[in-house]
Amino acid sequence: MKRVLSGMQPSGQLTLGNYIGALKNFTELQHTHDCYFMVVDLHAITVPQEPAALREQSEAVAALYIAAGIDPSKANVFLQSHVRQHAELGWLFTTLTYMGELERMTQFKDKSAGKDSVGAGLFTYPSLMAADILLYNADLVPVGDDQKQHLELTRDLAHRFNQRFGDTYTIPEPYIPQVGARVMSLDDASNKMSKSNPNQGSFITMLDAPDVIRKKISRAVTDSGREVKFDPQNKPEVSNLISIYAQCSKKPVAEIEAMYDGQGYGPFKKDLAEQVVGLLEPIQERYRDIRASGELHSILREGAERASVQAEKMLRATKEKMGFLVL
Ligand code: ATP
Ligand code: LTN
């Protein structure tokens, strides 16, 4: 069975962008692949996190994985910090990564722009991500479009290791959806929807109450004119909303355009809000059940135990090949 690995940061509440761009694919791949789905808490601390919030959000992300449909008896669900091998292999890969490669990463440029003090971990973040993936010899990595560059670097590092030390790692492939790989922000369609955006109105979280979702969508920026037309060049804001509609309703874009022909933005936005509420409400219900059941900790403990066995094998092989004295 081919292997899949992916992760999301507990740096805030998961958004509709996280769901459409990645989490939805996690749930589909679990039926046909050997899956490892992590909450990447070690990555989240590359920007300052309040300790109590980090702990709460780590549990919330794990619970949302399950609420969205990941079955913990099929897929391994765990926290990155519970499998110590991530930090160790991360260091080994940091030493194999070139400064120039890290300097080219657009996520680093975006997240460090305008900040006075930037932690070194934000810079070396991609080396840890490469370690996450290679530790399980993953074949496929389901991610949104913004992670393409990090995946390319992971592939380069796997090649580099194999060339220097002998064939060890599978070269992983990104698994990026054709539609919905880049859900844009509701206040500005030139930025991706991001859970760490300080403007709460710019994103919909998976746990937003129905009325909050309705309000956010009614306030979402639209382009001038009144035509509901998919035209990302000239109508980026409306096109983003249409593509969210298409993802939630599973209707083709042309059908959505036809439904609102001549009606203006009002009825379209109203229905879009109901589509999003309809998608998220059942997930929110399951989320509440999982949190209330008290089962989460044992799920995470078991997931981490299984993942550690696999991770230890690769770490040992890596250390032996690099010349560490492994006893
Ligand atoms: P942050 O804003 O804190 O950087 P993020 O949501 O961008 O967070 P992650 O939580 O690590 O980052 O992302 C998890 C997954 O969701 C990744 O695969 C990422 O590509 C995907 N993703 C994030 N935002 C979007 C988006 N707006 N559209 C589609 N996919 C997305
Ligand atoms: N860098 C990713 C999160 C992430 C990840 C991973 C994704 C960390 N490790 C391994 C896939 C595989 C992000 O910022 N979205």
Automatic annotation (TrEMBL):
Its EC number is 6.1.1.2. A motif ('HIGH' region) lies at residues 10-18. The keyword Cell membrane does not apply. Gene3D superfamilies: HUPs, Tyrosyl-Transfer RNA Synthetase. GO terms for molecular function: tryptophan-tRNA ligase activity. Pfam families: tRNA-synt_1b. Keywords: Aminoacyl-tRNA synthetase, ATP-binding, Cytoplasm, Ligase, Nucleotide-binding, Protein biosynthesis. Homodimer. HAMAP family: Trp_tRNA_synth_B (MF_00140_B). Its main location: cytoplasm. This is Tryptophan--tRNA ligase. ATP binds at Q9, P10, S11, G17, N18, G144, D145, D146, V183, K192, M193, S194, K195, S196. The gene is trpS. InterPro entries: aa-tRNA-synth_I_CS, aa-tRNA-synth_Ic, Rossmann-like_a/b/a_fold, Trp-tRNA-ligase, Trp-tRNA-ligase_bac-type, Trp-tRNA_synthetase. Belongs to the class-I aminoacyl-tRNA synthetase family.
